[in-house]
Amino acid sequence: MGKASSAKKVARAAGLGGSRAYGARPPYVYYFAIVVLVVLGVIGVYNSREYANSKINAQGTGAPKVGQSPPWYEGFAVDACGKILPPITSRRDPYGITTKSNGIISISPTKKAVAGHNATLGAFANAIGMTLNASEIQLPGGRLYQRGNLCEGKPGNVYVMVWTSPQAPQSDGVLQDTKKIDVAKGYVDTCNPDCASGVLLENNQLVTIAFLPAPPKGKTPSILQPSASTISKLSQTIASAATTTVPTLPPTTVPVTAPKTTTKSKGPTTATTAAGKTSRTPSVSTTATTAARSSKTKTTPSVSTTTAAKAKSGAKAKSGAKVKG
Q1: Residues 6+ apart with CB under 8 A from 261
Q2: Whole-number CA gyration radius for the chain
């Protein structure tokens, strides 16, 4: 009796624990948590993208500006183990930074992403399809140079050197191997560890990317300048851009009109003298400017014919008195 009742209790408990209604209940909390995670992820990605875009746009407001006119020009070369490679020939120009097979970089950005402090050597490399970073160099369709590859019998490395003008001697080259922070201008100029994004493009400057063995400790690698032909073309291009003038419109002249004049003519005035003769006064022309039109002109009244008649009768009376005497 006791065993049967306990078995029933166990069966009853097992039935309650394995209820189908409880097992079929949807996990709403789990689904809600998944939705919240997805929404937060989308918001985070959107905010990160907006922040990155705003930062890029802020850095792209300076020179070279969008639509830079005249364009900036910079001499360019690649030094592979002490030999300057032929100028790059490229037809690609996705955003206004390219080269026309003459060893000169033409810089006239078409958007803020590559303007201002975003106009870098890396932007140029991407535009023409060139591989460039701290450990690799590869020209479009050319050989890939990787850090550690033998160069002049020694492991090679990637270097970038600039000269501030075409006239600067080779000894004045500045190696781009340290980080330079310009607080006033708000940007970081660096080639370490990524040459592609750090070296800024400049107007009337020379830049050489080199793959050379590491120099002795404390020494600067001997990197070649762009060729004399490239330097000459750069100087000519800069001079031509400086002398290009924008046509000016002729000065606008405002015609000055002379004041209008009006002429009023008085008719001839007839007066009778005491002797009975009539005299004619010539007409008088009055010239007045437009400003004097409002003034009133006073005229002298003519001699009355009644006065002339009285004078005539008086003369006849005097002559009659003389006859009677």
Answers
A1: 287, 288, 289, 290
A2: 51
- The strand pairing partners of 84, in sequence order, are 79
pLDDT 10s per residue in the chain (325 long)?
Answer: 555 566 666 666 655 555 555 556 778 888 888 888 888 888 888 777 665 556 556 666 788 999 999 999 999 999 999 999 999 888 889 999 999 878 999 999 999 999 988 899 989 999 999 998 888 999 998 999 999 999 989 999 999 999 999 999 999 998 887 665 555 555 554 454 455 457 889 999 999 999 999 999 888 899 999 999 999 999 999 998 887 645 555 555 555 555 555 445 444 444 444 444 444 444 444 444 444 444 444 444 444 444 444 445 554 444 444 434 3
Q: DSSP letters of 143-186? A: -EEETTSEETTEEEEEEEEEESSTTS-GGG-EE--S-EEETTTT
Q: Where are the domains of the chain?
A: 72-242
Residue 218 tokens, joined: 């404390």
Q: Please state whether 264 falls in left (phi above 0), alpha (psi between -120 and 50) or beta.
A: beta
Instruction: For residue 98, list its beta bridge partners.
Output: 106
Residue 324 belongs to what H/E stretch? helix 305-324
Report the phi/psi class of residue 184: left, alpha or beta, with left for phi > 0 and alpha for psi in -120 to 50. alpha
Residue type, 211: F
CB count within 10 Å of CB 137 equals 27
Rounded Cα distance between 15 and 21, Å, is 11
Angle at 49 between CA 45 and CA 54, to 5 degrees: 150
Non-local CB neighbours of 166 within 8 Å, separated by 6+ positions: 75, 204, 206, 231, 234, 235, 238
